[in-house]
Amino acid sequence: MEGVRAGGPYPLPQTPSPIPYSGLSHVDTILQGFISAFKLILALDPELLKIIWLSLQVSGGALLLAILLGLPLGALMALRRLPLRGLILSILNTGMGLPPVVVGLVLYLLLSRSGPLGFMSLLYTPGAMIIAQFILAFPIVTSLAHTAIVNVNPIIRQAARVLGANPWQEALTVIREARYGIITGGIAGLGRVTAEVGSVIIVGGNIAGYTRVITTTIALETDKGNFDLAIALGIILLGLSLLINLALRAIQRLGRTSSGVILWD
Amino acid sequence: MGLSLELAQISKTYNGHEVLQECSWTFEPGLTHVIMGPNGTGKSTLLRICALLEVPDRGRVNFLAGGLPLAPDLALKRRLTLVLPGVGVFNTSVFHNVAYGLKIRGIGSREIEERVGAILETVGLAAKRRQRALDLSTGQSKRLGLARAMVIDPEVLLLDEPTASIDQENSEIIEGIINKIKAERKATIIMVTHDPIQAERLADRLLIMKEGSLLPG
Fold first, then answer.
1. What number does CATH give the domain B4-216?
2. Helix B109-122 crosses helix B138-151 at what angle (to 10 degrees)?
3. How far apart are the first and last CA of chain A?
4. Taking the alpha carbons of A162, A167, A173, A179 in that order, is the dihedral positive or negative?
5. Which residues contact A107 (CB under 8 A, 6 or more apart)?
6. Which residues of B touch A177 (CB under 8 A)?
7. For residues B27 and B85, is the Cβ–Cβ distance under 8 A?
8. Structural domains for chain A
9. Closest alpha carbon within chain A to B157
10. pLDDT tens for each residue of A119-169
């Protein structure tokens, strides 16, 4: 038959070993990776720093955008009887579990040259990555802000009103009372975007020095078997997650603590 | 001198039950009016309507200054205040709770510092100015509520059971503060209480709320 080589079927493709053979066991390689990783971190390797800085810019930008748009929407839904509020909340709650790869795929189709937003030339830029992460963070920030504000005791609003607050001051007072819950939402949003890889790798393209962030570098370097940088970035990502969680805990404790002098006003 | 309040045939219904039934009364300026009556007779509702927190189903409240009616706008709302039975303490320090009414009126920080400091001395909370207000005891919270009201120097002061659920000591402190307000500020005070002895002590005019209407006590 045309196209089929005589002498038997093609040999099965060999699955490449993720770790190049060097005479060392996997555990040794990983340990060596850790040692090299710490050296990279301690030496403040410029490549490493650039990747971290871009990650912080992308995730920070996405979070800032999510807060700027999500907090007013959450507050509006909590303080006013908006039409379709139930529907918007259902959409937001669904959005909290959006798979990042799906976000990346849809955004890719929209931003690609032939897509409806192709004229913006955003594909494979940090801007596209910020938009992708914003889409992931926005429902979390908005929904948690709404929950925090709607749960403020109604007496707070009445107290503000009888003390002479105008409607804006009244709303700001209620939002201020919900501040710990709102910050919790922000930190939860940050946690979601710093750890995700699916959307940014699709719309960012993982271009070295331009759109390469911590998570996409880990994916790439692991694929290449270059564990030093991957592990170093993994440690940094874990450190960031730890910091985010510690901040979350501290803020939750600050909101609930029942004694002591006011530290934050 | 405080404002006078005219209630003109006010009615209010909750869940099919008419709590206030064509209630009419004139609260004279600068006097302390104490309202008594069983639970559920509409005393708190009346205070909330007087504080412009609620709108009556029928009838109206007229505020008069020197016999002239005032429009129910923000400027009028800022000349009166209600101390809610649950106070509604903000989750911030004692100082910032008391300063709230001044801040939203755009008063400068130096004046706020002076006025809040003086009021905190009056209500006996000066030592707790930096403490979180939510950590105060019930009695201290009630005093905080009075301090928040006093600092804005209202011309109409509405007090909804200011000494309910607190001990004798705090109750006496609060009564002392109300007497001080009566003596120094000449505000029109309308207060609801269940304590007849306290009512006798504080009232210039004693009123009874019965079946949704006010009657002289």
1. 3.40.50.300
2. 130
3. 81
4. positive
5. A128, A131, A132, A135, A199, A202, A203
6. 90-91
7. no
8. 53-254 (1.10.3720.10)
9. A162
10. 999 999 999 999 999 999 999 999 999 999 999 999 999 999 999 999 999
Mean pLDDT to the nearest integer, A168-178 = 96
Question: Does any CB of chain A come closer than 8 Å to the CB of residue B105?
Answer: yes
Residue carrying structure tokens 């009512």 = B199
For chain B, what are the domain ranges? Answer: 4-216
Is the pLDDT reported for residue A24 higher than 70?
Answer: no
CA A117 to CA A106: how far, in whole Å? 11
B64-80: pLDDT as tens digits: 998 899 999 999 999 99
Q: How far is CA B147 from CA A149, B129, B176, in A?
A: 26, 12, 13
The C-alpha angle with vertex B130 and arms to B128 and B135, in degrees rounded to 5, equals: 65
Closest partner CB to A164 (pick from B87, B91, B105): B105
DSSP A118: G
**Both structure tokens of A156:** 């707070």
A197 Cβ contact list (under 8 Å, min separation 6): A100, A215, A216, A218, A219
A175, A148 Cβ separation under 8 angstroms: no
Whether A62 and A192 have beta carbons less than 8 Å apart is answered as no
DSSP E strands, B29-91: 32-36, 58-65, 68-70, 80-83
Name the amino acid, one letter, at A98. Answer: L
Q: Which of A173, A176, A189 is nearest to A64 (CA)?
A: A189
Q: Reduce the DSSP state of residue B29 to 3 states and report it.
A: coil
Cβ neighbours of residue A97 closer than 8 Å, sequence gap 6 or more? none
Per DSSP bridges, beta strands B68-70 and B58-65 are antiparallel
Whether the Cβ atoms of residue B147 and residue B122 lie closer than 8 Å to each other:
yes
What does pLDDT average to over chain A?
86
- DSSP H helical segments within A116-153, as ranges? 126-150
- Whether A262 sits inside 8 A of B148 (CB atoms) is no
Cross-chain CB nearest to A262 (options B74, B93, B101): B93
- H or E segment and range at residue B38: none
Tokens representing residue A132 in the block: 């992708």
Residue A96 DSSP label: T
Angle among Cα A80, B70, B32 to the nearest 5 degrees reads 95
Q: Closest Cα of chain B to A175: distance in Å?
A: 11
**pLDDT band at A259, cuts 50/70/90?**
very low
Chain A, 148-167: which have a CB under 8 Å from a chain B CB? 153, 155-156, 158-166
Helix (H/G/I), strand (E/B), else coil: B173: helix
Measured in residues, chain A has a length of 265
Q: Residue A216 and residue A198: Cα distance in Å, rounded? A: 9
**Alpha carbons A152 and A178: distance in angstroms, whole number:** 6
